[in-house]
Design a protein that fits this description.
alpha/beta, 5-stranded mixed β-barrel, 50% helix, elongated
């Protein structure tokens, strides 16, 4: 500005411009520092400073936000604050208006917790559909926890009171520190591979988020989700949540509640057994009554049917059948004996020896007849054969040759009937009555 034309601002105008400049230049920011000058007036607002070794900044957290803090702000506590930078125009002080405040160490862990939770949830590790129900009756339980912690004492106390028959193995691991997740994962896998346990309980007592951080390890969460044996997880107090609990088949708010969920109350079992025993006795008595009634009805039917009378009747029928059988056998024997006597009489009347002599004489007479008939037939055949020979000789060409003629044939045996069948120089053959001549035509 020049001396002649000068812009003059009032303090309020200056503070308004400064506030606008701060709010536009600084977006929502995170600031970590130590609490100081903590005050909470009757209005319910919270005022404090955030400081480090070299500087401090005034902060205000108004009542609607400050009522939801899960810790008590106190002097010297290191916190992580999120807010917007502004300027309080009335006094000209710039300050940070806080909308979120948490303890510094726990805040970083909480952000890592939420990021990993979102990742694993997107993969479906926390889906209820993939979780398995616990066995109806757990006979052998593996408790994966610190052997010296309060959690294992609470669990064993509840199990011993509710169901002393349960076999319990304490599988010792570290439940806090850098090496704890690897130990728990190895024990989970070893317990599942042994095939010894019906269920596994992964538990520890309460603590800060940092104390419980081993149960938010990604490898441990995946091991819990992949366990072939159902896993119950109870870590910390009722308000504490870990990622291992989200992945487990069942989450219990405390170790004691987990023990109660795993086994029934022995009084309830005794009552159940008494009820089943009464039902069994009633069922047995009812079946006995039904069978006795069936026996009574059978006895009545048996009496009505008079089995002794039926037996007497059957015995009489048997005796009658035996008599009829003897009669039939006797009659059949008599008929066979009569037939045998008749055959003997016929045999004696026919005198077979005399018939044999007659048949032998007849055979002698008839024996000469075939020979005479054969001789006469041979004589007739000889006469007929001589007649046929004379007829054949009369028409035979050989007979003609015998009278001085000859048969001329060519070399291939063809009979020469005409001079046109041969030419000069051909060889022919003449058949005479006493031989053959080989000739050549001139």
């Amino acid at each position: 500005m020049t001396d002649t034309a000068r812009d003059v601002l009032t303090p309020s105008q200056l503070n308004t411009l400064a506030r606008d400049l701060l709010e536009s230049a600084f977006p929502l920011i995170w600031v970590e520092g130590e609490l100081g000058n903590v005050t909470r007036p009757a209005s319910g607002h919270l005022y404090f400073t955030l400081k480090d070794a070299r500087a401090q900044v005034r902060c205000a957290m108004f009542k609607p936000k400050s009522q939801w803090l899960n810790f008590v702000p106190r002097e010297g506590l290191r916190v992580l604050a999120r807010g917007r930078l502004t300027l309080y125009e009335a006094r000209g002080d710039y300050q940070l208006v806080i909308d979120h405040l948490e303890e510094a160490g726990e805040g970083a862990l909480r952000r890592a917790f939420e990021a990993l939770k979102a990742k694993l949830s997107a993969e479906g590790l926390f889906e209820q559909a993939r979780k398995r129900p616990l066995p109806a009756h757990v006979r052998r339980l593996g408790v994966i926890t610190s052997p010296s912690g309060a959690a294992v004492r609470d669990v064993l106390s509840v199990l011993g009171r509710r169901f002393p028959l349960l076999e319990v193995d304490v599988l010792p691991v570290q439940v806090q520190g850098e090496s704890a997740p690897a130990q728990i994962v190895a024990m989970l896998r070893r317990a599942a591979a042994s095939g010894r346990y019906d269920a596994l309980l992964l538990t520890r007592g309460g603590g800060s988020l940092e104390d419980l951080w081993a149960f938010n390890d990604e490898g441990l969460v995946r091991a819990v989700a992949a366990s072939p044996v159902p896993v119950v997880c109870a870590v910390g107090h009722e308000t504490d949540f870990s990622l291992a609990e989200f992945a487990a088949d069942l989450r219990a708010p405390t170790p004691s509640v987990a023990a109660e969920l795993l086994v029934p109350e022995q009084r309830d079992l005794l009552n159940r057994l008494r009820t089943l025993h009464r039902q069994l006795l009633n069922q047995h008595a009812q079946q006995l009554r039904q069978r006795m009634q069936r026996a009574d009805r059978a006895a009545l039917r048996l009496h009505a049917q008079r089995p002794q009378a039926r037996l007497d009747m059957l015995r009489r029928r048997q005796q009658e059948a035996v008599r009829r059988l003897h009669t039939i056998w006797r009659d059949r024997q008599q008929r066979r004996q009569a037939a045998l006597r008749h055959a003997s009489a016929v045999l004696r009347a026919s005198q077979p020896q005399r018939r044999l002599s007659t048949l032998r004489e007849r055979l002698t007479v008839l024996g000469s007849r075939p020979q005479a008939a054969i001789a006469r037939q041979l004589q007739r055949d000889a006469l007929r054969l001589r007649g046929l020979a004379r007829s054949l000789e009369a028409v035979s060409p050989l007979a003609t040759v015998a009278r001085g003629y000859a048969l001329v044939t060519r070399e291939d045996g063809t009979l020469v009937r005409s001079v046109t069948q041969v030419a000069s120089g051909d060889a022919v053959q003449a058949q005479l009555s006493d031989g053959k001549l080989r000739l050549r035509v001139e």
